[in-house]
Predict the structure.
Amino acid sequence: MHNDMEWSRFVNRWEVAEALVRRAETAGSPAVVLTVDAIVDGNWETLARMRRIDTRQCADCHGRTFRDFLAHRPNFAGLDLTAVKSLNRTDVNWVFVNRLRDSVKGKLLLKGVLTQEDAVLATKAGIDAIIVSNHGGRFGDNGRATIDALPEIVEAVGGRMPVLIDSGFRRGTDVVKALALGARAICIGRPYLWGLAAFGQSGVERVLDILRNETHAAMQQIGAPSLHDITPAMVRHA
């Protein structure tokens, strides 16, 4: 999705959250994405081990305090952050989602939905689209793969909103499988970041070219001349 703004961890003051929404809308963003599957920090043991041998000074970029960290983020510039103690909001519920829905003038998407029950509640709340996501397993690696959760969520929304998906999509064949199971679009995270880190903009473009070419080749292999010709019958469940 283009020109959307996502907050994986909503700040814990409504006034600040609302100000960020207004700022995104003023900047021309047609959509706001609320991530609901990453509200607490995980037990990142690998990060803790690597941090002990990393000699770089994180404070040079992020500051030495939480207040310094916020000061380095342009999207918080000019906002009253005196009462903000954390970027985590652990009390996200449907009351909060409904309040956000009333505040957002454009599209509102929920990212992190993995069950048909939540998908049904999202339709009742007037959400514009769902992103089936487990954050690539970063916040919990003991749940379901998003591709396994996708069919029941597509069935639950019954065409009332688009269903997007991410987490672990690396090849064009992955894209075709998700489209066959009902996803409207596939969101790509880490692959384009790897391309960006290695080669800048040209790296991102190359990653997208590879995915596009692989998707086209997979469609040719299964006999689907267009995206509309990709059907669930083209995927076999083990």
User: Anything to note?
Assistant: The longest strand covers residues 31-35. The CA atoms of residues 63 and 233 lie 53 Å apart. The longest helix spans residues 201-222. Confidence is low (pLDDT under 50) at residues 1-11.
